[in-house]
Amino acid sequence: MTSAVVFFVLAVSVGTLALDNGLMRTPPMGWLAWERFRCDIDCDHDPKNCISEKLFMDMADRLAEDGWRELGYEYVNIDDCWSSMERDANGRLQPDPKRFPSGIPHLAQYVHDRGLKLGIYGDLGTHTCGGYPGTTLDKVATDAQTFADWGIDMLKLDGCYSNATEQEQGYPLMSKALNATGRPIGYSCSWPAYQGGLPPKVNYTLLGEICNLWRNYGDIQDSWSSVLSIADWFFDNQDILQPAAGPGRWNDPDMLIIGDFGLSVDQSRSQMALWAIMAAPLFMSNDLRSLDSRSRAVLQNKGVIAINQDPLGVQGRRLIKEQSGVEVFWRPLSSDASALVFFSRREDMPFRYQTSLKKLNYTAGVYQIYDIYQEKALSPIKDVSDFVVSINPSGVVMWYVYPAKKMHRDAMLYGPSLHRHGNRFAPPTHL
Ligand SMILES: *[C@@H]1O[C@H](CO)[C@@H](O)[C@H](O)[C@H]1NC(C)=O
Ligand SMILES: *[C@@H]1O[C@H](CO)[C@@H](O)[C@H](O)[C@H]1NC(C)=O
Ligand SMILES: *[C@@H]1O[C@H](CO)[C@@H](O)[C@H](O)[C@H]1NC(C)=O
Ligand SMILES: *[C@@H]1O[C@H](CO)[C@@H](O)[C@H](O)[C@H]1NC(C)=O
């Protein structure tokens, strides 16, 4: 049996229920404050970077004006440290009055006016990780209603300062409470990350029924070693994690740090490629006001975005770990297409890796290849023919692969353009 066949069966057999709020049928995309801006609340001395309404308005402007929204980056998400240290007289959360003087409904309106969505952060527990008021079990319904009243579109519910029993009650309770507001609100659960990310403590069937996405593992930091440790954990545990994902329910390996300080261009391409293979949410945490052009090109690459957003919604896998330090990843896509990533962990020089599609378990036939980062079509390849890819140190070669005849028709149907919903990546029509 081929990989493709194995996968299709897998995808169908685990195609269980997703949280029924109609949201996030493909992995959500947008911007999230935490990794880059953390809990910087010093607006007196650092007004440009502190957690304030100005920061989120700036990012909304950039998403709307610099071509991000059209590519699917639609969420503008607040993380920790937005709130006042006290709830209001009615026991409702309230933003810090100095840093969010216009209030959250005004910010939501600002974001919505630009065709974007606003996400907010809460924490199931006595306090947030940053020490702000948490959402204890008795406050779940109140906070869900507050967020809905404010026009919030997504909630990240962290899990600091609660124990396993409270989390087991609280995360499903919040899911019900959000539903009861009548407002569709995407729901990101940090629950599994607090329980080690693996069964038996974590029940991924349940998570898929109550959350749209979930953080399985620790926070990303601004370094290549952090990206690598996260990718390793997700692919080492792919037999458990891969079947948990599907339309409306996604594993979340955390934010994209492309455009920050820790990654080279090759490493940026690698993070983007591996996140696309994982069908991961694509939340950038960077400063969109001063992004360099090479990071922008990686984050706005239409091919890699289309692979991430493929409507089939099947998470990919690592196929091979070679002694040489090369790893091969694969993700099945709609229209009998697939994505391949050749990744090198080497630290010496570009490595010439030789293989064939047959060795990667492709069915017999001729395949068209589109190189995602070179942005060009390669010569068609027969499954049995050996080929060589040259992979930079800590870099990737990423291919969009499709059977020679079939996609030709799709290419004519869809043309080279890429749309946010329901469409797929179609290679240039000159193929
Ligand atoms: C609430 O759940 C019901 C049943 O699962 C679903 O039909 C409805 O769309 C949900 N509403 C919201 C706002 O999530
Ligand atoms: C969890 O915390 C609650 C208090 O909120 C306490 O009653 C309960 O015993 C704790 N459970 C465990 C397993 O520690
Ligand atoms: C996991 O959750 C599902 C759905 O709620 C449930 O049917 C199943 O029994 C749970 N599995 C375990 C091992 O608890
Ligand atoms: C190809 O399939 C064979 C037989 O199922 C399996 O042993 C092998 O690991 C697969 N190779 C890859 C690269 O997936």
Description:
By secondary structure, the chain is an alpha/beta fold. It folds into two domains: 16-308, TIM Barrel (Alpha-Beta Barrel), CATH 3.20.20; 317-425, Immunoglobulin-like, CATH 2.60.40.1180. The chain is 31% helix and 19% strand. The chain is built from 15 helices and 16 strands. The protein has helices at residues 3-13, 34-37, 53-65, 68-71, 104-113, 140-150, 164-181, 191-194, 204-210, 224-236, 238-241, 265-277, 293-299, 302-308, 406-414; strands at 29-32, 75-77, 117-123, 154-158, 186-189, 213-215, 250-252, 282-284, 317-321, 326-332, 338-344, 351-356, 366-371, 376-382, 386-391, 396-403. The strands form three sheets. The protein has an eight-stranded parallel sheet. A six-stranded antiparallel sheet has the order 9-10-11-16-13-14. Helix 3 (53-65) packs parallel to helix 5 and helix 12 (265-277) runs parallel beside helix 13. 49% of the residues are buried. One 2-acetamido-2-deoxy-beta-D-glucopyranose (NAG) binds at residues 3, 319-320, 360-361. Homodimer. It is found in: Lysosome. Residues 1-18 form the signal peptide.
CATH architecture of the largest domain: Alpha-Beta Barrel
Number of domains: 2
Query: What is the CATH topology descriptor of the largest domain?
Result: TIM Barrel
Low-confidence parts, pLDDT < 50 over ≥5 residues? 1-14, 407-425
Helical fraction equals 25-40%
CATH homologous superfamily grouping of the largest domain = Aldolase class I
Mean pLDDT: 92
